[in-house]
Amino acid sequence: MSASTVERKMIINSIQDFNSMTSLRVMRTGKRMQIEDLDTLPRLDRSLIDYRKYHQYIGQSGIRNCMTVQGSRGCPWRCIYCDVIKLSPRLYRRSPEHVYEEVKYLYDMGFRDIEFIDDIFNVHKKDFMAFFGLLIKNKIKLNVYFQSGLRGDILDSDAIDVMMEGGVKSVNISLETASPRLQKLIKKNLNIEKFHKNLTYMVEQYPNAILGVNAMHGFPTETEDEAISTVNFIKTIKWVHFAALHNVRIFPGSVLETIALENGITKAQIDESLTMPYNSIPTTFTIDPEFSRKLRLDFVKNYVLNRDRLRYVLQKQLEVCTENELIFKYQSYFPSQINSFDDIFKLARVDRSEIDFSKQPQESKTPIHYPELKKPKFCVGTQRPLRFLFIDATQFYSTDERAELRIVEAPLGGLALVTYLNHMFQDRVEGRIAKSFVDFDSHDELKMLVAEFKPDLIGVRTMSYYKHFFREVIAAIRKQNSDVPILCGGPHPTIASEEVLSEHDIHAVVLGEGEVTLSEIVDWMLQHDMKFPDEDALSKIKGLAYLSRRLFQHCS
Predict the structure, then answer these.
(1) What is the dihedral of CA 397, 398, 400, 403, to 10 degrees?
(2) What is the per-residue pLDDT across 15-57, written as a single tens digit (0 to 9) for each?
(3) CATH 3.80.30.20 domain span(s) along the chain
(4) Strands (E), 365-428
């Protein structure tokens, strides 16, 4: 080999080594300590969004004009199907008094329907009963909904009695599986016997409370006998108003993903399943799809569509819900078959004459005083406020073929972030919140929103189910503005930060305690002429993931 050839080879190797050393790599700063005393956070400023627009649609509880409240952060259960490795936060609760004050504030505005998006009070019976005790003591007459799924084995007759007296109209109870082995595997460890006792007490003592039971099917290693036992367990309870057998979703970074990979399920199958419609059998199922189809058919035919059950629960439901509300609830179960109340009767093989409509409730006549929307802020002295745009990308556009039944929830995460920024920085920050479908219903409308607001910083939140839509939203923003800094958060960016940072033109992913992490970034920008923090500054802000070009850089 000639000297010149050796020299050229050495140069090429040196270039390759340099490129390797300077290639982009994901950096994670130190872990952000959780906010333990949630009572210290400012109450959500509901005037930051136009609730009239959101209340055109029905929320998760199945009714309009319902205000959502969050009583906790984190999760106490560490179940393997939703516990993200190293990132899952510990559970911290707001006090019953703090939650009551927020609910009373909403009550005074005229709202009579309150939905809790977590099961906080259920996991701490003393707090759970104390909150409803405050409602009863102060004669606050509300309709309360727990749609996200309470843990049924921690309830007892006293807690059930108090929550029903306190105004609970609808509650979902999470079963997941009736298999003791799978309960141990998923680390939920439900007391199945107590669970059954509590559900039986509810259906017998409070038949007008709309009770839902959520079960899951498709765990890796689940046997056919175990799947059958879960369906049979629900069949022994007469009568649950709404019973659902959901597909298990395997999320990246979860312990369940590790188990799935160990049992022959591939990364490609997991990735594909995350965006499949919820009524489709995922690519991650190890059970024979034909068995799964027959199991569901049996469950729907012999329980869900059982004529005696439907005739009984329809009468009870019509004493709690209006016809329109019930149509929506049944549409969520049978989206292609329910368009009117007569369709429900047809499905149930029940004649209208068999149902007494005289007890049907009337819609509340209490006037609602919506909070006055925040007006644009003006410059303080010579410095204009930093403009922060929060985009919630968890709803497909109305023209999107992926759009399903419209269940619209207010973006509580955005409300929490902007409320906190206003609390910390007053007139030095102007925040705006926009949710897809509601506040913008196309990429063109999104571009117009960005062009009009001229943000200095954009935050985007999404979930795994909307990961491809999220990619489209980021691309639309970049076509409009290639320079504005973008932060991302929410379930998908958090559990897939490397993928998100590598594939999308964003500046950082917020991994924890968004209010505090975001406020530190904003504070730096306010001190540096609205410029996004450089790499030195980012490395000092805990709770972030970002791309680095530094040589020999190691994660902290």
Answers:
(1) 90
(2) 344 334 345 688 889 888 888 899 999 999 999 999 999 998 8
(3) 51-354
(4) 386-392
Structure tokens at 217: 């099917």
CB 357 within 8 A of CB 427: no
Give the Cα separation of 38 and 305 in Å (integer).
44
Q: Which residue has the tokens 């008094």?
A: 97
What is the location of CATH 3.40.50.280 in the chain? 21-28+374-548
User: Is the previous residue joined to 239 through a cis bond, with omega within 30 degrees of 0?
Assistant: yes
Q: Which CATH architecture has domain 51-354?
A: Alpha-Beta Horseshoe (3.80)
Write out pLDDT tens, residues 167-214.
Answer: 999 999 989 999 999 999 988 899 999 999 999 999 999 999 999 999
- 74 DSSP 8-state letter: S
CA distance 198 to 237: 11
- Sorted by sequence, the CB contacts under 8 Å of residue 56 that are 6+ apart come out as 64
Q: Are 59 and 68 in contact (CB under 8 A)?
A: yes
Query: Sorting pLDDT into bands at 50, 70 and 90, what band is 485?
Result: very high
Measured CA to CA, the distance from residue 61 to residue 64 in angstroms comes to 8
Give the pTM.
0.86
Higher pLDDT, 333 or 178: 178
- Cβ contact 98:38 at 8 Å: yes
Task: Tell me the DSSP string of 440-468.
Answer: B-SHHHHHHHHHHH--SEEEEE--GGGHH
What three-state secondary structure class fits 555? coil
State the amino acid at position 139 in one-letter form.
K
CATH of domain 21-28+374-548: 3.40.50.280
Sign of CA dihedral 240, 246, 251, 256: positive
Distance CA 110, CA 370 (A): 8
Q: CA-CA distance, 409 to 490, in Å (whole number)?
A: 15
